[in-house]
Write the structure tokens for this entry.
Amino acid sequence: MRSGRLGLSLGLDLLGARICSFDCLYCEVGATDALTLAQKPYVPAKRLLGELSAFAASGPPAFDVVTLGGLGEPCLNTGMDRIITGCRETFPGLPVAVLTNSSLLSQAAVRRRLALADIVLPSMDTLVPGEFAALNRPHPDLSLSAIRQGLLDFRSEYSGRLFLETLIVGGINDTAENLDVLTDFCRELRPDRVDVVTMTRPGAYAMAQPAPPDTLARFRAALGAAATDGGVGHGPAALRSRVVDHKGPSSGPAASPHETMARVAASLGRRPQTVKQLSVALGLPEDDISRAVEALAREKKIQARAELDHVFYQG
Ligand code: SF4
């Protein structure tokens, strides 16, 4: 995985709503509705795995990895261990990956559950406390130093692959101070890979803006050199950008216009996307997506807005 892409991913939502320990300025699913540290079986393992079995019965998997994430922090789901095990039983041979904001890794029980995954993709955007507060807007009981230590503890206990992601927002965590402390941290953590990314979709709050390419290049060079193999490029961001809802591209019969509209509407209900992003996510031709988007806009089921130099559609 370090040397290439994770490929197409089946994304599973473990929260069912915008429930998170952070309320990041850049969050692409929108502002957090429940800012919480409460751990519960938000989407119960039995229900999720039942739906997954029914889906698996519809045909062979057209994806390369199963990714646990969703509309918030998946480690808040206390059934994550059963879900990881169940995914592996449902799709033998496919790796299970988890996206996490790292906030709960100071807890040994969370680390134990997470360690069952084949790939863990934790985020760490900044180690400067003021930047962390402004950018990630954490639950007030969270401590940045405890999160930092939790990630290091997890690294020492975990035998799977660890892909760190750092998202840079212009004017917030693009500072020399952050670059220095993150570089030291990467040296200590020794992730299998570091991915430095910026926003490619509108964030939850308008003040969040992408970082320019030269800033990303500076962070990539320093953090990549500090990580184990020095490699940066296609990691969590690539995985996220290729998450499919249920079916891989061109793996089955072409979808009817009605079915395409339903899938587009469901996907846009989760996050704003461009036609191109929808095409990749749903595995359908851009022309079909364009027609569905136009029809949905005519019916006033979705809205268009220009942002980040692209037209995004939102349910
Ligand atoms: S970006 Fe991730 S960690 Fe931040 S608020 Fe959204 S779901 Fe939570």
Summary: The longest strand covers residues 161-167. The chain has two domains: 9-241, 250-314. Residues 1-5, 229-253 have pLDDT under 50 and may be disordered.
